[in-house]
Predict the 3D structure of the following.
Amino acid sequence: MNAALLCHGLREILLAVTLVATAWTTARAGTMMLIDDFNDGNDDGWTTVDTNEGESWGPGSMDPTSFAYHFSTPQDVPLEAPYRGAMSSVWDQSSDPLYTNGLWRAKVRADAVDSGATILLRYTGSLETGFSLYAFSAFGGRGFGFNRYEDSFLTDSMEIPGVAVGLGEEWWIEAGAVGDQLSMKVWRDGEPEPTQPQLAFTDATLPVGRFALQTNINFASDTVGPINTTFDDVYFTPVPEPSTALMTTGLIGMLLGLRWRRCR
């Protein structure tokens, strides 16, 4: 094979690789992955924390045996309950950097007023030792909102206007964190998925952390009642951080240029 033909083939290969890499890094990379649908009736691979354990109204229950993940308390959670009866379940594999940037979604249902169904992103620390996190929540009989916590203190909050969560209704929450770009999209199960998130904003406070499901009574209310929340069908779609996408494309472009010069 002569040098000219070899160089031509090399240019074609590098160009194809560049196009594929560019498409991969500028679109939603990869396929939506099922994390857990709880159809096996267990929560293997999840680590749970229950702040109701040892309390007169507890302990709480995080039960996957109904082929969904049901969080509940046997009695009403009082106003003075630590973290308003919070229970969380962290997906163990989410400490892998692969899961830092992307879109998480889950089907949720709240069967009690002010009982929350929350997706936690970039969660560090713990309920026992202090935590930082982004929380994307649905509260039964109320609505949807976002909260940011730093060292266990609420430091930012916003709501999706005009969308109510009826008791017993199944909704989807999609929570996104890609670099400093955060988003929240919600829709009732069985209805068309919105094309755009209802909340989209920039927040660079928390760069890394784990994924978790959490429930508690709404901190903003004076409701005394039980926790009764269900999660199902948890999915993740990896999305590359924009700076990573640009770097990948740039490096391949440099390689293409170098090989081109050598073949001229």
